[in-house]
Amino acid sequence: MQANPFHPIAIRLPALYLGLLCCLLLSSCESTDTSGAAYARDEEGQREFFPEEVAYTRPGSLIEAIENPSPWVDSVFRTLSPKERIAQLIIIEAFSNKGPKYEADVMNLVKRYKVGGIIYFQGGPVRQAVLNNRLQAASKVPLLISMDAETGVGMRLDSTVQYPFQMMMGAIEDNGLIYRMGAEVAEEFKRLGMHVNFAPVADINNNPQNPIIGYRAFGEDKLDVTAKSLAYMRGMQENGIIAVAKHFPGHGDTDVDSHYDLPIIPHDRDRLDSLELYPFRELIKHGIGGIMVAHMHMPELDTTMNLPSTLSKPIVTNLLKKKLEFKGLVFTDAMVMKGVTKYFPPGEAEARALIAGNDVLERLNSVPKAIQAIEQAIALGYITQEEIDRRCKKMLAAKAWVGLDRYKPIELENLYEDLNPGIADSTNHALAEAAMTLLNNKKNFLPIRQKKRRRIATLSFGVVRPSIFQREINKYARIEANFALSRKANAKEVKQMKQKLKGYDLVLVGLYGPAVTPSNRLGYSKEAVGLVTDLARSDRSIMTLFDNPYTLNQFPDIHKSRVLILAYQAHMHAQVAAAKLLFGKIPARGKLPVTVNEHYQYGHGISKDKPLLAVSP
Question: What is the pTM of this model?
Answer without folding.
Answer: 0.90
